Amino acid sequence: MIQLELAGENALIVYLPAQISGKNLSQLQQLQQQVRLLLGEQLQELLPSYASLLIVLKPDHQGLLVIKSLLEQQLSLTHFVDEQAGQLVVLPVYYHTAWDLQAVAARAGLTTTQVIDLHQAIEYRVYAIGFAPGFAYLGQLDERLTTPRLSTPRAKVPQGAVAIADRQTAVYPAESPGGWNILGLCPTALFTPERAGTCEALMPFAVGDRVRFRSINLQEFSALGGQLPQELC
């Protein structure tokens, strides 16, 4: 079920079954550890997604075909252990009806309070980080909250916007365009590049970690450093 293919002059890609699942996530985490040990200094970067792992090599690697053969041999010997749980990260959210909370509730036949309760009730997994540094794709939402992306994306989504699309949820780490349905705002900084070169992490989570949301009021939001967009002030 696992395939290994060339992906350019300095890269290979490992494909798992095309699905969003905890099993895939666990296997990708274990594969990353094995690839790091196997390739050592030849490895430049590992880029995991829902069902694949892109392996980027340094230009002075020993040869793609040689490395592909080594990886294939390693894969044939690999025995994956049961799903591993990463650290738990709790993100506070000031839920607000200014954006899409009411529309999501109406579509689902729920009250806004029920939407908030359902969004908080699940422990999500970080399946991938992309789109922007600190943008974590979290899954999966309660089926009752399944909501398509906006037909017309917003030109400006505020920093910290907590949003949903299909059966995923995420927090926008910085102001940007976006087409997800916004439920509220999170005051937690999700990407701090000024920490580069220190022992502190640039992001509060990594692929494989668990995330829960916790509802807070406006006073708590402000105390945690959150700032409302101008149109809500």
Automatic annotation (TrEMBL):
<keyword id="KW-0547">Nucleotide-binding</keyword>
<keyword id="KW-0067">ATP-binding</keyword>
<dbReference type="InterPro" id="IPR029000">
    <property type="entry name" value="Cyclophilin-like_dom_sf"/>
</dbReference>
<dbReference type="Pfam" id="PF02682">
    <property type="entry name" value="CT_C_D"/>
</dbReference>
<dbReference type="GO" id="GO:0005524">
    <property type="term" value="F:ATP binding"/>
</dbReference>
<dbReference type="InterPro" id="IPR010016">
    <property type="entry name" value="PxpB"/>
</dbReference>
<dbReference type="GO" id="GO:0016787">
    <property type="term" value="F:hydrolase activity"/>
</dbReference>
<keyword id="KW-0378">Hydrolase</keyword>
<feature type="domain" description="Carboxyltransferase">
    <location>
        <begin position="2"/>
        <end position="203"/>
    </location>
</feature>
<dbReference type="InterPro" id="IPR003833">
    <property type="entry name" value="CT_C_D"/>
</dbReference>
<protein>
    <submittedName>
        <fullName>Allophanate hydrolase subunit 1</fullName>
    </submittedName>
</protein>
